[in-house]
Design a protein that fits this description.
Number of strands: 5
Largest sheet: 5 strands, antiparallel
Distance between the termini: 56 Å
Order of helices and strands: HEHHEEEE
Number of helices: 3
Strand order of the largest sheet: 3-2-1-4-5
Oligomer: single chain
């Protein structure tokens, strides 16, 4: 049993040296984490397209034809004046007796004639003699909708090479010509 401590020492030495021997493998430093640089082979932008409506008011002058009549005033108000005098005189004749009746008839005729003449002038006793078409312009507006497209880069598809092997990743920025990578159980971009 003198060899038991020696056997235990050998077993312990082999057990402790196993991971150390495994770390020395040439498989990209498989169990060690380290950082290195990879060569970027290709970078393709990831583009997101969007469309949105843009409305605006468009105004223009529209030609419009209008008829404009020409009027002439009637200059002869005699008929209305005479009719007013007759009606006024008849009404005045109904008032009073004797000389008062004569005065009321004359006053009624004068007042009736004046009212008839004035009424015919206010009434606009006009008639159309000429007219014609004229062209005016009216401003008219309408709403016009156009679609605006927008392309936005939201990321990059990156292809890179490390020690002869090719890898792919998606990044939120352009990496440039080389990419810092983390090498442990695999090769990944370092953050």
């Amino acid at each position: 049993m003198k060899n038991i401590p020696l056997t235990l020492a050998l077993v312990a030495g082999v057990a402790l040296s196993g991971p150390a021997l495994a770390r020395r493998g040439d498989d990209y430093g498989r169990y060690d984490t380290r950082y290195d640089w990879a060569t970027v082979v290709d970078v393709d932008p990831i583009i997101e397209r969007s469309r949105r409506p843009v409305s605006r008011e468009v105004c223009y002058d529209q030609p419009v034809e209008r008829y404009e009549p020409g009027y002439t005033a009637r200059r002869n108000h005699t008929g209305a004046t005479v009719l007013g005098a007759v009606i006024g005189g008849a009404l005045g004749n109904q008032v009073g007796k004797g000389d008062g009746r004569k005065a009321a008839t004359i006053a009624g005729a004068v007042i009736g004639g004046a009212v008839g003449n004035n009424t015919s002038q206010r009434r606009g006793d006009y008639y159309e003699t000429s007219g014609g078409y004229t062209t005016d312009y009216e401003t008219r507006c309408r709403e016009q909708t156009a679609w605006r497209g927008n392309d936005e880069i939201v990321g990059y598809q990156v292809t890179y090479r490390y020690r002869g092997d090719v890898f792919h990743t998606t990044m939120d920025h352009h990496p440039g010509n080389r990419l810092r990578v983390r090498v442990d159980r695999g090769v990944t971009p370092a953050e």
